[in-house]
Amino acid sequence: MRDQAAGPRVLLKRLRELMAEALEPQERLDRIVREIAQQMVAEVCSLYVLRSDSVLELYATEGLNPGSVHLAQLRLGQGLVGTIAASARALNLTDAQQHPAFAYLPETGEEIYNSFLGVPVLRAGRTLGVLTVQNRTMRHYREDEIEALETTAMVIAEMIATGDLARLTRPGLELDLSRPASFNGLAFNDGVGLGHVVLHEPRVVVTNLFNEDSEEELGRLTESLDSLRLSIDDMLSRRDVAFEGEHRAVLEAYRMFAHDRGWVRRLEEAVRNGLTAEAAVEKVQSDMRARMQHMTDPYLRERMSDFDDLANRLLRQLLGRGPDGLGEALPRDAVVVARQMGAAELLDYPRDRVRGLVLEDGSITSHVVIVARAMGIPVAGQVKGVVSMAENGDAIIVDGEEGQVHLRPQSDVEAAFAEKVRFRARRQELYRELRDRPSNSKDGVHVDLLMNAGLAVDLPQLDESGAAGIGLFRTELQFMVAATFPRAEAQERLYRDVLDAAGPKPVTFRTIDIGGDKVLPYFKGALNEENPALGWRAIRLTLDRPGFLRTQLRALLKAAGGRELRLMLPMVTEIDEIVQARELLDREVRHLSRFAHHLPTKLKLGAMLEVPSLMWQLDELMAAVDFVSVGSNDLFQFITATDRGSALLSDRFDPLSAPFLRALKQIVDAGIRHKTAVTLCGELAGRPLSAMALIGLGFRSISMSPAAIGPVKAMLCELPVADLEACMADLLGHPNARHSVRSDLQAFAAQHGVPL
Ligand code: PEP
Ligand code: MG
């Protein structure tokens, strides 16, 4: 290189001039490769661009046969160029022909060159092409030359991303940027959504690439890094519960990265080479992401997303932007794509514009997913890699039934899904027709189909679904989506609205079930519990802090003045907890009547059965309450010692297995013995097959998400209950009962024409 130190700078300066000139795209590319060859004293410089069919096409060259432009091709992984693209790593070779991957393309005439340097053309961690230089002599390219070529590649990436090169592609051979991508995640909420990507935290797009004055730019970088570190320190010093536990660990990692000397050095180097500070952040991040994309170690991948977040924060600092909000122009068919997100943030989006939600992390029981389910939004979760692949405005399909996501889908995929949506709409139409039909089985057995709810947004569903009432109102959701403790008046208002909306239909309010995974950002619960699901939560917590429970009970009693109030206690482990809660309730009733408040006409107290210890106090339990509701999500989690949020274990044990079904049967039988009403309100109630099993065990009341009422009712209307009961008694009574009776039940349904 002529002038080693000035090399990258001079090259960038020339590129900047070329970008500013009014040139046709091909001519601009030709001049760029010529300029690079000249500046790097190389005989050859070539650019290969990755097409959507995974072929790298020669787009421009200085030094190779000009006739081979747009003709020479290599598959991804083929030859040196294909290897660079597939691995997203540079190759620096003194004698290229000795490399095992070397593939000779006769049309290019490259056999006379020995040394070879190739770098991937990257944008946001995606490989868009490969840029190479070659020399006849056997030489080794220096670090600063690699750096210069990488920086140039970044400029070319921008040209590809802005569509500059699209005009050079032949019809049917689009560039990789528009390549369809499919992801397999987990099904978090049923439904199919077609629409356009809205990145919840849009990546900051850097358009200003070249700096005017490197020293000044270094100053900007240092200043932004300093304030980034300060803001992290500030968050860490806040003694706020939101920053405890895992949040804290993430922040500690951020702090470590923000001081990472290797990172800072690479940023500074890129600025010295002529990039703006923001372009330097983008470049270093892109290189790093591309290098790490093949890593399988989940810990390191996780750290990569921390680095990504940090880089985004730094970009915002540099560009003086606060966290992006919803953006002015939210498409009418938004599919929100986020790494993870709080429940309240989802509620900020206008419901009528959100067609789906895609989460890179999350679990099926995370709050945002519970809220999305209540709002009827299809959700796919654990969709790894989607955030960095998606661009705002990309076409996207989320299939919450299968947990799949299709980004920039091909037209046949899109057509298939549009058909699926139409099919589902027709089915919904069918369910709507069933809405006003009594929920009776084929042989006339009545089963109450109730719905689960928790927020005001759920209320219209009560009429739309045809539910017989609300079997579980999760009062903690109001607390979870609020920024501070909801005041007594706000609680009372919500409960009153719920009862008004329900009219004559019964509503069962569950007292606040927080703790465990249901954290309130403003309330310091038990910190650092090893097993939060088994920890200080629900009734345990509210009996220890009776102020909570008393405020809530008073709000409920007032809201239900003049009508029936049904209350239910979560996570009951022993009967004494019910006794204590009843004492608190009686106290509140006495207090209100002393002040001549309008009291409920009827007061019913029930308990959730979700802790296995109650299985051995069933008689005492049934005698102590007015009704029991089985929380099958938790009961199954505790009986099988299986974390309900664990993706790894989600399919391991089947709730339709003899041991669990026998436990449920014991509960139903105890209810019958004591004439105590028994219902079930876990997710089991919402799937036609498992709902059928519950009815076969003797359940005559089940509560589910509103969207499930239609399919369950369609199943019930065709169900011969007496036959099913006999069949299940047989299956469960058999001394060698097979572990899962799922397939037997499917066979029963098929035989009797029961739609599942
Ligand atoms: C359950 O555990 O089954 C239940 C209905 O309660 P939640 O899902 O709110 O824990
Ligand atoms: Mg529960």
Task: Provide a descriptive summary of the structure in words.
The protein has 756 residues and is an alpha/beta fold. Helix 14 links the parallel strand 15 (448-453) and strand 16. The structure holds phosphoenolpyruvate and magnesium ion (MG). Magnesium ion binds at residues 610, 631, 633-634.
User: Which structural class best describes the helix and strand composition?
Assistant: alpha/beta
Oligomeric state: single chain
Can you count the helices? 26
Sum up the overall morphology in one term.
Answer: elongated
The helix content is 40-55%
Largest sheet: 8 strands, mixed
Extended strand count? 22
Estimate the mean pLDDT confidence.
87
Strand order of the largest sheet: 7-14-13-9-10-11-12-8
The radius of gyration is 31 Å
Small-molecule binders: phosphoenolpyruvate, magnesium ion
Low-confidence stretches: 1-5, 240-246
How does the SSE layout of this entry go?
Blueprint lengths: L6 H14 L4 H15 L4 E7 L4 E8 L10 E3 L3 H9 L3 E3 L21 E9 L2 E10 L7 H19 L19 E4 L1 E4 L2 E8 L14 H24 L7 H14 L2 H12 L4 H16 L5 H22 L14 E5 L4 H5 L6 E6 L7 H9 L3 E3 L4 H4 L5 E5 L4 E4 L3 H24 L13 E6 L6 H6 L4 E5 L1 H6 L6 H15 L4 E4 L27 H7 L1 H14 L4 E6 L5 H20 L7 E8 L8 H7 L2 E4 L1 H8 L18 H17 L2 E4 L7 H10 L3 E4 L1 H12 L3 H13 L8 H11 L4
Parallel strand pairs: 9-10, 10-11, 11-12, 15-16, 15-22, 16-17, 17-18, 18-19, 19-20, 20-21
Antiparallel strand pairs: 1-2, 1-6, 2-3, 4-5, 5-6, 7-14, 8-12, 9-13, 13-14
Helix pairs in contact: 1-2, 1-4, 5-6, 5-7, 5-9, 6-9, 7-8, 8-9, 13-24, 16-18, 17-18, 18-19, 20-22, 23-24, 23-25
The protein binds phosphoenolpyruvate (PEP) and magnesium ion.
